Amino acid sequence: MELEQYFDFLRADDIRLKAARMGIETILYYLHNQTQMTQYLTEWLGYCAQGEREQDENPSAIVARLKQIKAERSVTAHG
Questions:
Q1: Contacts of 24 (CB under 8 A, 6+ apart)
Q2: What pLDDT, on a 0 to 100 scale, did the predictor assign at position 79?
Q3: Domain segments of the chain: what residues?
């Protein structure tokens, strides 16, 4: 196995995973700070999930209207 096949060498100081915009420095940072990064990502995912729940519970007027239209179309299509 040749490691070079997994990387794009854009410049001497810019090595990225093939088919990704992620550079090897990002992976090395994660591996070096894995405990802190795992905690950060867990908190961030929780924050996103909370925001999604809040938005579902209190949709904007346009989202509520679109849901209403979708429900009406569903009834019409199946009714």
A1: 7, 15, 16, 17
A2: 64
A3: 3-78
For the record, the structure tokens of 16 come out as 């990225």
Percent of the chain having pLDDT more than 70? 99
Structure-token pair, residue 61: 């007027």
Q: By the 8 A CB rule, do 23 and 13 touch?
A: no
Q: Which residues are within 8 A (CB) of 63 and not within 5 positions of it... i.e. 6 or more apart?
A: 55
Say if residue 28's pLDDT is above 70.
Answer: yes
pTM over cut 0.70: no
- Asked if 14 contacts 24 with a C-beta cutoff of 8 angstroms, the reply is no
